[in-house]
């Protein structure tokens, strides 16, 4: 019986993890299954563009994984039982609506969603750009407004900054406002922050800093005694992971992320690896890696190296777990890249303007190409598992 590897999620981390394993593990010994809720790869780093009205191409996962030996299962993950080594999935296929899958190695890459932080009214009245359906709802609402009325974006992080500038540029007749608890881009260096504020001025964005939104209503938001009237509220105040992991028996942090060691193995269940936003991983600077596409890449590289080494007995290489900087677009032709030091503190140096926009576009195109070619042409020779190593095991009875 072949060793069963299941990858949960086909985002930036999950899709590339599956492709990397397919390139390096022999299909006679290992079967790889990817479970994803939708049939397409979503370019999450472009969702603010989709929300503002730009077209976004879709990459069908079935095409991405064609001829790789990877089995794709389009279904929602509804439960993980780490003790029994099982995953429960639900799909719209009436013949197999709910199924229980057994694994020997699990790669947990389910990512994150918008965090409402318990603020009343967010779920009922706010929109978000943390998912493709969310971005499409924003797009639909902006189209309905057709340049008339106002939009409030809540948040001061990279996603909020990209969303508010993209919307303001695409819909110049809208009144666009950003409200944030602290300072927008307050962690940037002085030059980078000044550049961002100039972009806000150029695009006519009203900025409310040190403004904590306490609730969202059908007509806007409330911050203390101040009413922020808006025809649409876009909530971009951070990310949260699905509570699935905390209910699985895996050891998790207070925020629900899976606690992992340096190899991205779960500290409680070493046959489970967590990558991307789902993982609570300590970087080389001793700080937790932030939820970001960059972290997805580094944690994926480390986890797949560890899986291959654990199964084949080959030496496990150590990948860098670093965070090099913040790259944020400010509309179509403007951006900034803020470099950070080893302590994740912004340096004086930053890349700004059209050059930074070209760099950001290069990163986006490169990430999309990598996802569209997850196996880069399978090698003619892949590693076999030594006899007795990594053999499939029976699931533990409940």
TrEMBL record:
SUPFAM superfamilies in the record: FAD/NAD(P)-binding domain
Top-rank taxon: Bacteria
One of the protein's GO biological processes: aerobic electron transport chain
Cofactor dependency: FAD
GO molecular function: NAD(P)H dehydrogenase (quinone) activity
The FAD/NAD(P)-binding domain, residue ranges: 4-291
Keywords (A to Z) from UniProt: FAD, Flavoprotein, Oxidoreductase
Family: Belongs to the NADH dehydrogenase family.
Protein name: Oxidoreductase
Protein species of origin: Actinophytocola xinjiangensis
Lineage: Bacteria, Bacillati, Actinomycetota, Actinomycetes, Pseudonocardiales
């Amino acid at each position: 019986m072949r060793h069963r590897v299941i990858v949960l999620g086909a985002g930036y981390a999950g899709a590339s993890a599956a492709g990397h394993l397919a390139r390096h593990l022999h299909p006679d010994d290992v079967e790889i299954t990817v479970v994803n809720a939708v049939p397409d790869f979503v370019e999450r780093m472009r969702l603010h563009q989709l929300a503002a009205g730009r077209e976004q191409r879709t990459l069908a996962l079935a095409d991405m994984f064609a001829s790789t030996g990877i089995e794709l299962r389009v279904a929602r993950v509804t439960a993980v039982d780490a003790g029994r080594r099982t995953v429960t999935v639900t799909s719209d296929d009436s013949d197999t609506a709910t199924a229980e899958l057994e694994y020997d190695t699990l790669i947990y890459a389910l990512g994150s969603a918008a965090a409402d932080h318990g603020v009343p009214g967010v779920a009922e009245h706010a929109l978000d750009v943390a998912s493709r359906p969310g971005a499409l709802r924003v797009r639909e609402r902006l189209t309905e407004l057709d340049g008339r009325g106002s939009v409030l974006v809540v948040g001061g992080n990279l996603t909020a900054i990209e969303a508010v500038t993209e919307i303001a540029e695409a819909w110049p007749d809208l009144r666009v406002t950003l409200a944030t608890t602290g300072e927008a881009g307050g962690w940037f260096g002085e030059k980078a922050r000044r550049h961002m504020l100039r972009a806000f001025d150029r695009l006519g964005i009203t900025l409310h800093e040190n403004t904590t939104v306490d609730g969202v209503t059908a007509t806007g938001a409330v911050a203390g005694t101040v009413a922020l009237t808006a025809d649409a509220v876009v909530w971009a105040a951070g990310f949260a992971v699905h509570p699935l992991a905390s209910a699985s028996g895996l050891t998790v942090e207070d925020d629900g992320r899976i606690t992992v060691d340096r190899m991205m193995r779960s500290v409680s269940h070493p046959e489970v690896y967590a990558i991307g936003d789902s993982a609570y991983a300590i970087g080389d600077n001793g700080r937790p890696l932030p939820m970001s596409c960059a972290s997805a890449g580094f944690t994926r590289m480390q986890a797949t190296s560890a899986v291959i080494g654990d199964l084949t007995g080959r030496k496990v290489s150590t990948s860098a777990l670093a965070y090099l900087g913040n790259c944020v677009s400010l509309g179509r032709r403007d951006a900034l890249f803020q470099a950070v030091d080893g302590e994740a503190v912004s340096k004086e140096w930053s890349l700004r303007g059209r050059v930074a926009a070209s760099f950001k576009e290069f990163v986006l195109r490169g990430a999309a190409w990598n996802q569209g070619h997850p196996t880069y042409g399978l090698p003619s020779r892949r590693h076999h598992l030594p006899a007795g190593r990594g053999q499939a095991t029976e699931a533990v009875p409940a």
